[in-house]
Amino acid sequence: MKPPKFMYCDPDTVEDAIALKSRYGHDSLVLAGGQSLMPMLNMRLANPDVLIDINGISDLKRITRTGEVLEIGAGVRQSELETDAAVADAVPLLGKVVPYIGHIENRHRGTVGGSLAHADAAAELPCAAITLDATVVVQGPSGRREIAARDFFEGFMTNACAPDELVVAVRFPVASAASGSAFVEVARREGDFALAAAAAVAEVGTDGRFTALSIGVAGIAATPVRATVVEEALVGQAATAENIAAAAKRIADRVTAGDDLHATGTYRKHLAATVVKRAVVAAVADAQNRSNGS
Amino acid sequence: MTTTENSPEARYAGDTRTVTLRVNGQEVTREVPTRTTLADFLRDDLDLVSVHLGCEHGVCGCCTVLLDGGSVRSCLMLAVQAQGHEIETVESLSADQNNLHPIQEAFAEEQGLQCGFCTPAMVLRTKEILADGQERTDDEVRHEISGILCRCTGYQNIINAVQNAGRKLRCGGAGGCGSAHDEAKGA
Amino acid sequence: MTTVENEKPRYKYIGSDRKRVEDPRLLVGRGGYIADLKFPGLLHAAILRSPVPHATIRSIDATEALKLPGVVAVVTGEDCKAHMNPCMNFGPSSIPQFPLAVDKVRYVGEAVAAVIAESRYIAEDAVELLEVEFEDLPAVTNPVAAMEPGAALLHDGHGSNIGYERTFEFGDVAGAISGADLVVEDTLHWGRSAGMPMETSGAVARPGLNGVLEIYCNSLNFSYFSFLIAGALKLPSNRLTMNPVPAGGSFGSKFTAHKVPTLAGFLALRTGRPVSYVEDRLDHLMNSDHHASDRYYDAKMGFTSEGIITGLDVDVVDDYGAYMQFGVGTHGNAFSQIVGPYGFRNVKYHLRAVLTNKCQQGAYRGFGSEVHNWVLERLIDKAAVELGLKPEEIRRRNFITNDQFPYKIPGGNVYDSGNYPAVLDKALGMIDLEHWRSEQKRLREEEGRYIGIGLATTQERSVFSATEFWALNDNPDFPLTSSPESATVTIDPAGQFQLLLHCQSMWGNSPETVGTTVLAEEFGIEPETVNVRYADTARALPGTGPGGSRYTVMLAGAVRGASRKLQRKLIDIAAHSLEVAAEDLELVDARVQVKGAPEKSLSLPELASTAYFFALNMPPGMESGLEESYTYDHPYTTLPSADRSDLGVFYPIMGHACHIAVMEVDPDTGTTKFLDYVAVHDAGTMVNPKSLGGHVTGGAAQGLGSTLYEELAYDDEGQFKSSTFMDYLVPTANEVPPFRIGHVETPSPFTEYGIKGGGEGGRMVTPSVVSAAIDDALREYGMRVRELPVKPATIVATVQAAIAESSK
């Protein structure tokens, strides 16, 4: 199990990387953290003429907070999100999601941009990105453009980047002080891709009713999906376990994943409702803790 | 981009590269095919056969090395990507079986190994885990070693070895703190 | 706690938790594994694996592959047909197998062609350039359908897809079932998993001097079977030397594994160059020497109203795979402990082993006995519920009692010794079951949580005899009866010890620790001072190698035998030197001394010096030197009867275990969690309790894998669904609980020191106890584990179906 031959390119700048992408297009692949692409190369499921290694581009490795936006460079390693105080302060959900990505040996190499670009529907960061209404920043020969996370994941392992574009950063809105967040995942083994996972960010008013709620679900369709039907059913309603459980069942209609070795479609419908329910309940508890604590 | 000497074909030409990196404290420079994995480079070019290939697709963790102090799957890196970095394999602790590092000694005492195939990876991961000097629960250790598969031990003796090694290191060497720990554990 | 203390002699080294002598080299990363071997000019092979389950190979075009710089040769099944004999085979000779598919492929992943090149990278490049034309044949994936008339045949020469069929009946099963107060029945499926060591199988072969082919490989038993590999390669047996290489785990997967060394040897012969073939993980998952058991059961068991078992009726269809090189030995293992630890006398076993388009089966820790254990325990648990008996109580009522040993079971095998109540009591003493039972009720009522308790008592047979390879057949080609093990002990001129083992036995077990511990016990030296080596087959005395939990027992017997010969010689030399009678001398703490006058003594270096350099100080006629070998034969085996109404004694060294698990099951996710787990084993006298505990824990973790996670799955079309470690789920540390281990020691009356084998036991119990705990947790939903691995989806489906049913 050895990688095939390729032309190895290790540009120092985003511009050089984009020039390579422009030139080689579909004959090239971008090597970020390598935790998904390297196995595919070793198994020869990927066979690019040109491999564009972006690990040497220092511009992609910054985490910056500007006002109410946290921008994370595409080249930031996932393990940095676990320990970075600015991230924990600005977007607490990320610190809850990241430990579920593979194992620490993967997260030491795996990058934020790599995970988003790979667009695996069962992956954690894409799920967090749609939940948080993040913005993916991509750059091409004609400059940068921003794509809302919910538009970025187009289909099974496909994203909205043009062949000559590179994911350069992702922007997260800073979480409101009143919000609580949670992430719940069920996998065959810890560290595996999710059979189903849900991220939730909730705000509850003083009257005990949801004032805001966003829920993202992984592992149940070709892309991560927002549980809009659940959100709509709950906002304005009392944040009780019964209400949450009843609303969470609505996610089952969004489940399109069928049977595979590890799960059945029927199971995923039940599981999706379960993880949504638990994530929302935990997010509510977190919101209450945060408001009690502050 | 337009001139020949600046074209990607010229700039990135060739199936090999010269890489310079530090391995177990020594600087090494080698000419290496660009597609060679870091694992194969360490094994074949540097004879560091302690880096074991268990799956070559990033799941088993037997090829784990420390890259700038952090554990990574060396089968999921190209050797050329280690340019300028510091790599540690288990030989960096001790390559002398008559003079083991306290972590290795702890694994021997607890029988935290059987066939030895995942062992270098587990020892390196232990070094990384214990770098913060903190005590941790067995459950925490269990979670922290979960990125490396061991098919022999059922993990318990590895967890015991990590805890034993932690005591040794916190007490400054193979001798450990003597009975202080045992009393604490008994209490 | 009521553990019975067994009387045993006190040992100084045997029975203490010493560090393993194997570990220092492993800890510095110098295990000397097969992939670490480097020879000048070494070539590397990669194979093309079949993408289709069943097809005729129309053509293989290697033109483009051979043009690639660095490619040396492409070898195919046509070359095998022309230059080889079929591989070694303990199954029907009408089902031949070659290391590369000949004429047709019979499962996804079967090796079609091998490319030999200067590097593995180039070899894999060239594999991609091979062009193969397949003509598809119908895939046979369901073993029941495979038996139907008109099903596509895997092997035309065999004439049927039934590889083996026979009914064995011991006692009166019809009477036992019809006369029972309660009959429980179940349909069960034990799914396919495998040993799956972290190191795959591999071999390096090179043409040596004098026309000898040298093969280095990490297979385990080649001193037993190298002549068969020579036969496949059409070499005189003395022109093949197989060299032992330590293995990075086996668990059965490298037991008699021959495909890899045979292929490497063949490639070296075809090219005249040294060739390495090391399976990559995909090779190993799809095309290893063998997967493990994959069986469908219809089973029933009769009981009296008091819960006493009256009889067992088993109908098993074995989804065997495409070849049968290991015969039905996995069922022989079931026969070795067919009644478990229970005293019932009536058993019927209808076996059909069916050929299907899947990788063949072979050994995995338990070798098929663990499957039978699971069936037995499943049925007993079902009866316990119906009779309102606690799981420990129904088992206790059925135990063979201490005064019945040695005990001949239906079918003929003998259990040497045992104390099953002591093991059960020890386990019950390590865990407060009454606490957990009340906690189970409380958590269900107060917190809506579901916990369950599982308990199983099972046998762990050890020390197989070779008769088990053929005893299920009427007319075996080669009804061998030997399964010996040898050791050579040398004291060098300076008094230092060398121990030579006559097989490749290092795969993560502790052969060197065992051997040196016995030497320490016998001579009073420190185990770490002994140097241990492994003989190649040109030098090897009879040896069978590790497998069937035999090696500790057999090696202890061999080393003790050689030690006794050497002790006699040392005493004779000392008697001559000291001018005292030999019977007045004793060997104590590495000195030969006069009994009652220890100041009059000679040290081992002094005696060794005499033996090597002072012939005139030796007794007249004594050979110079200090080296003795001993071949220890199986301590207790008998032939089967001609009509196979008695299969003979073939697995008599019988261990026993009791596991108790407390698990929590989440009915909404189907995930499980352990709250506690105790495992008590009786493997006779323990050589090193910590090592034994390590094996129990490791085996239990594997049993857990087979129960909840691991699956070598084929779909209905014969496509393989588990071809990576992202699909074949080996448990990580997160999934494995902290097993709490206890030991009981009931020595064997038949082995040296009373040791029994204990290498496989963990895996032989866990599936039963985990299945029982899951059932118990979700009993109100009618949960019943019938198929392994039991997946979260199955658990949730059961719960949801029950909820839907109750709301109707």
UniProtKB/TrEMBL annotation, chain A:
It holds the Pfam family FAD_binding_5. Gene3D superfamilies: 3.30.465.10, CO dehydrogenase flavoprotein, C-terminal domain (3.30.390.50), Uridine Diphospho-n-acetylenolpyruvylglucosamine Reductase, domain 2 (3.30.43.10). Keywords: FAD, Flavoprotein, Oxidoreductase. GO terms for molecular function: FAD binding; oxidoreductase activity. The keyword Amino-acid biosynthesis does not apply. Residues 1-177 form the FAD-binding PCMH-type domain. The keyword Flavoprotein applies. It comes from the Bacteria. SUPFAM superfamilies: CO dehydrogenase flavoprotein C-terminal domain-like (SSF55447), FAD-binding/transporter-associated domain-like (SSF56176). This is Xanthine dehydrogenase family protein subunit M. It comes from Pseudonocardia bannensis.
TrEMBL record, chain B:
Pathway: Alkaloid degradation; nicotine degradation. Pfam families: Fer2, Fer2_2. Keywords: 2Fe-2S, Iron, Iron-sulfur, Metal-binding, Oxidoreductase. SUPFAM superfamilies: 2Fe-2S ferredoxin-like, CO dehydrogenase ISP C-domain like. InterPro entries: 2Fe-2S-bd, 2Fe-2S-bd_dom_sf, 2Fe-2S_ferredoxin-like_sf, 2Fe-2S_ferredoxin-type, Beta-grasp_dom_sf, Diverse_Oxidoreductases. GO terms for molecular function: 2 iron, 2 sulfur cluster binding; metal ion binding; oxidoreductase activity. Residues 17-93 form the 2Fe-2S ferredoxin-type domain. Signal peptide: none annotated. Gene3D superfamilies: 3.10.20.30, [2Fe-2S]-binding domain. This is (2Fe-2S)-binding protein. It comes from Pseudonocardia bannensis.
TrEMBL record, chain C:
Residues 28-138 form the Aldehyde oxidase/xanthine dehydrogenase a/b hammerhead domain. SMART domains: Ald_Xan_dh_C. This is Xanthine dehydrogenase family protein. It comes from the Bacteria. Pfam families: Ald_Xan_dh_C, MoCoBD_1, MoCoBD_2. It comes from Pseudonocardia bannensis. Keywords: Molybdenum, Oxidoreductase. InterPro entries: Ald_Oxase/Xan_DH_a/b (IPR000674), Ald_Oxase/Xan_DH_a/b_sf (IPR036856), Ald_Oxase/xanthine_DH-like (IPR016208), AldOxase/xan_DH_MoCoBD1 (IPR008274), AldOxase/xan_DH_MoCoBD2 (IPR046867), AldOxase/xan_DH_Mopterin-bd_sf (IPR037165). Gene3D superfamilies: Aldehyde oxidase/xanthine dehydrogenase, a/b hammerhead, Aldehyde oxidase/xanthine dehydrogenase, molybdopterin binding domain. One of its GO terms (molecular function) is iron ion binding.
